[in-house]
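Give me the fold.
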Amino acid sequence: SDTKYTRVVTADSEALIQTPLKDLLDQLDPEEFWQVHRSTIVRARAIDQVSRDGAGHVLLRLKGRDETLRVSQPFAYRFRQM
């Protein structure tokens, strides 16, 4: 997310929408979509792997994606039991 634009990534495509992340978050089901960073929301069912780095930060891998996402401290509570 970058101010008023948000990059939406699905398994098949990517798009840039003119909706701020905060507004998008208000429209999504909080049980299904989790904010994991101030600029990142993920679909919970798309999480493939949860791990921690050497400093204890929570890292996520999503199904079908190569990049690793870092979970920021305010949102790490969701992953304490994992």
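Helices lie at 21-27.
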